[in-house]
Design a protein that fits this description.
mainly beta, single chain, globular, 1 helix
C-alpha cells in the first residue's frame, strides 16, 4: 500500500511538472553580427545578429535587426574613460523554434557599451513580445537579450565589421 501511495504521489508531481508553465526562461545564445543593408534610422545602417541556442525550449535560432543612436549618450552601466554608450533606438527580432513555431518581438530599449581597451562591446536589447505562431501563438511578455561582441574581422581602415557573439536571453511572462 505504501508503494502504491508513493507511486501515485510521484505521478501527480510528474503531471504537474509537465503542465507547469514557467514565468521566466533563461537561454544561452551564440552566433555572429555585422552591419545590415536595412536602414531603420535615416543614414545609419542597422546591425544584424544571427544567433542560435538550445535550452528548455529546444534548439532555436534568433535573428535580430536593430539600430543604435548616431551619437553617444551617458549610461550609469557604461562608465569609464575607455567606454562609450549608444542607445538602441529601433529594431525587431524573430525567434524560430525547432518545430517551426515563431515568436516576434519589437525593440523597446537597450544599448551598446563599447569598451575600447577590452576590444569588445556589451550590447543589450529589450523587446516586447508582439506575436507568435504554433506554441508561441498566445505568448506575451518581455524579452531581454544581453550579448558580448568581439571583433573577428576588420576593414581596410582597421574598423571592426564582423563580430563573434555570445550571450543570453531572459524572457518573462506578465504576472496574472
Amino acid at each position: 500500500m505504501k508503494l502504491l501511495a508513493t507511486a501515485a504521489l510521484m505521478l501527480n508531481f510528474g503531471v504537474a511538472c509537465i503542465y507547469a508553465q514557467p514565468d521566466s526562461v533563461d537561454l544561452r545564445v551564440s552566433g555572429t553580427s555585422a552591419s545590415s543593408t536595412i536602414q531603420l534610422t535615416p543614414g545609419k545602417p542597422a546591425s544584424e545578429y544571427n544567433l542560435a541556442g538550445d535550452g528548455m525550449l529546444g534548439p532555436f535560432t534568433l535573428r535580430v535587426v536593430s539600430s543604435s543612436a548616431a551619437t553617444p549618450d551617458s549610461s550609469s552601466t557604461c562608465t569609464g574613460p575607455t567606454k562609450i554608450h549608444f542607445a538602441a533606438v529601433a529594431g525587431a527580432a524573430v525567434l524560430r523554434s525547432w518545430d517551426g513555431s515563431l515568436l516576434t518581438v519589437n525593440l523597446t530599449g537597450g544599448g551598446d557599451c563599447i569598451d575600447f581597451v577590452a576590444k569588445q562591446a556589451l550590447c543589450t536589447r529589450i523587446f516586447q513580445i508582439t506575436g507568435g505562431t504554433g506554441r508561441f501563438k498566445n505568448a506575451s511578455g518581455a524579452v531581454t537579450l544581453t550579448m558580448t561582441l568581439v571583433p573577428v574581422l576588420l576593414d581596410a581602415s582597421n574598423k571592426p565589421v564582423f563580430f563573434a557573439v555570445t550571450g543570453e536571453i531572459k524572457a518573462t511572462a506578465p504576472s496574472e
